[in-house]
Design goal:
alpha+beta, six-stranded mixed sheet, five-stranded mixed beta barrel, 8 helices, 21 strands
Length: 377
């Protein structure tokens, strides 16, 4: 488990969120199985996973909305909150569907948490206006919720969560209800807000794009377990197993046998070809074991006019098959003697009829374990 950032380069700073060995069951279903995570002050931590992975259950346990079946430690800002109610925890949650009160004005929605805490009316209004200014809605204080767009409602929900000045902001798929352009715009706004506040964000999503765009660190979950965590680039370029590679959108995955290893590099026999790349598994590789080779479509290079005769590692004869137009680029399928390879083509003027070979650089190639216990499935 990563311990996050360090305060002076040698002594780890105490985590602002510390969850150790939490297990949660719904009747016979194990939603979380001894999961441990932490987050440092000011970190943007994303918990990523498909539906049913346990990510939202974990968030609800952190917020106090769910009581875990078992937990070794659950602390926020150094305080053990295992038995502390949700209202008394130093964190707030932003939900996907806003959960705003339709009968209240925007300002009243934002100030509601302060009202519950007994803050005086003048102070509530001042702090609510400050929070609305943070999310660029300073002129909306007296508006009704139904008069706002979806993006504005989401920003009101953010302001309401921020107005109580929590140690941690929990965000449960907050962009899931927005259309694509607005969702992309809100990613930028969330990043700007995080940078401005220096607050710890714990963000739940099923979108690998959101995780890659916004996070300092990503925790990928499956079936109540953490399957890989680390920097976004690590999960994108060095997935630890087939499940991670699939989830992170690796288009080309081929099975073979590990033929050789040296200094972190691995060679895999796939059909009659030798494919080489960086070993990404969490355990040391062993020659002869089953292995998986992954390469992203945008990293596949194409050759023409007799280049198929060139032999060498990661160089493969091919012939063009189907083409899918995607506007900015083409998704091109290429048939080889061990299966179909997908390439992403940005040059619209390329003459596909001349393509007879493909290749990729070893540094772009991922080699993962192929044994069932290590593939994530």
């Amino acid at each position: 488990m990563s311990t996050g950032r360090e305060s002076n380069g040698s002594v780890p700073a105490p985590p602002i969120l510390d969850v150790s060995n939490v297990t949660h069951r719904f009747d016979d279903v194990v939603a979380l199985d001894r999961v441990s995570i932490c987050a440092q002050q000011g970190e943007f931590l994303t918990i990523l996973g498909q539906s049913g992975s346990g990510k939202t259950t974990l968030l609800r346990i952190i917020s106090g909305l769910e009581t875990p079946t078992e937990v070794e430690r659950l602390a926020i800002a150094g305080q053990d909150v295992t038995d502390v109610s949700a209202a008394d925890r130093n964190c707030t949650t932003v939900f996907q569907h806003y959960a705003l009160f339709p009968h209240m004005s925007v300002g009243e929605n934002v100030a509601y948490g302060l009202k519950v805490r007994g803050i005086a009316a003048d102070e509530r209004r001042r702090r609510a206006q400050e929070a609305l200014a943070l999310v660029r809605l300073a002129d909306k204080y007296d508006r009704r919720v139904h008069q706002l767009s979806g993006g504005e409602r989401q920003r009101v929900a953010l302001a309401r969560a921020l107005v109580t000045r929590p140690a941690i902001l929990l965000l449960d798929e907050p962009l899931g209800a927005l259309d694509e352009k607005l969702r992309l715009d809100m990613q930028v706004e969330l990043l700007d807000l995080h940078k401005k506040l220096g607050m710890t964000f714990v963000y739940i999503t099923h979108s690998q794009e959101e995780a890659l765009t916004m996070s300092d660190r990503v925790v990928l979950m499956r079936g109540g377990h953490i399957v890989q965590e680390g920097l976004p680039r690590a999960l994108f370029d060095r997935p630890a197993n087939r499940f991670v590679a699939d989830f992170m959108g690796v288009e080309n995955i081929f099975e073979g046998d590990l033929a050789a290893t040296q200094d972190g590099q691995a060679v895999v026999s796939v059909g009659s070809h030798q494919l080489a790349g960086a070993w990404c598994g969490q355990q040391p590789p062993s020659v002869g074991q089953k292995a998986i080779v992954g390469i992203r479509a945008e990293r596949v290079r194409l050759d023409a006019n007799g280049s198929a005769a060139a032999s060498g590692t990661n160089r493969i004869p091919c012939r063009p098959a189907s083409t899918i137009y995607k506007g900015k680029y083409l998704d091109q399928s290429l048939e080889t003697d061990f299966g179909t390879v997908k390439a992403r083509i940005w040059d619209s003027d390329i003459d596909l009829s001349q393509i007879d070979g493909l290749w990729w650089a070893e540094r772009d190639c991922m080699v993962m374990p192929g044994s069932p216990e290590e593939t994530g499935g």
